[in-house]
Amino acid sequence: MVDTPRPIEAAGVNDADAELKNKEAYFTAGQYALIWARFKQNRAAMTAGVILLIMILMGLSAPFLAPYDPNIAGRDEDYQNGAPQIPKFWDENGFSARPFLYTLVRERSAATNFRWVTKINRDQRRYVVFFPKGWEFDIINIDLDLPGDTFDIRWKALTIDRHLFGMDVGKIHLFGTEAAGKDIFARTMFAIWTSLAVGTIGVFISFVLALIIGGISGYAGGWTDSVLQMITDAVRTVPAIPLFMALAAMVPDEWSAETRFFFISVILGLIGWPTLARRVRTHLLTERSQEYVLAAKLCSASPGHIIRRHLLPSFSSYIIVDLVISFPYMVLSETALSFIGLGLKDPVNSLGVLLQNVTKVDVLLNFQWYFIPAGFFMALVLAFVFVGDGLRDAADPYSGH
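-> structure tokens emitted (401 positions)
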């Protein structure tokens, strides 16, 4: 007669089998699967990743989220330097299933020497509506007008006129308005997109240059390595602020906002590649003598093929980590340059341009809602930093995970 195993023993066997399967899956998993498994254990990095994904989606969908044109064309002349307007569901007049705001009335007051003042009529409501038709926006709007007729590029496509929310009467300003009446919420959404776009273009340019220069330097060695390292050191020693001051003085006033945006992105990319190029060179110097590289040479593979198909993929995870980590520095560079007046300028909506307004004393004392874009800037940079640190720890096989 065979004894029936006890439930406790059966549970122990099942747990042992599950642990054995987990270990087998761990040791047979690929490089990226291991990185993702380690990354998920970092709660701070995962939270930052969710925040970063939300902000990227906000930037990409800025034309849909923004109820009004962020530039002077969409300004509200009747609500200048206005405080944020938060929709309500109830007040002393009762509950409403639809969010609403009060009606604003402009009139002259004897108390202010008959100047125009804005008063709130609490008895008359304005209701929030969703997916209304509004201002038209081109998803693709490229206008590069560089010197000479050869480099003029103009392309507009994918026009939309639907937006997430609006008002049945009047306007709504979730983050308030500026002195000219421009909606800060709309400007913030477009500023996130602009800063991300500048960082993306800059990182892409620096990434390509770093792989080419670092790959050739590390694989070839000898006098080629010496010359390329001299160029790398020369670029690293160029001071950024004096360089941008000189470039800002050279930029023609007739350049469009898109042209200036493209120019700043290219310059940030051209001065941001040396660090990654050094890492690529160091890795290739240690890997070029490995047996798989020798086997590729014996098969008559070209140096470009060996670098592209064998050497660079061997540490692709570290390259991805470097790209993510370099993003916040690109965003910080654009914001700092725009903040001191050397980068992007109005009417371009970038986080650096919006932060220029918070330095005024009048804003610090009376219009604190100007600081709302600063909160989004801090969240964007910190999210990139935490995600980058999490990926760096996850990609390190000696991090103790």
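The two ends are 47 Å apart (CA to CA).
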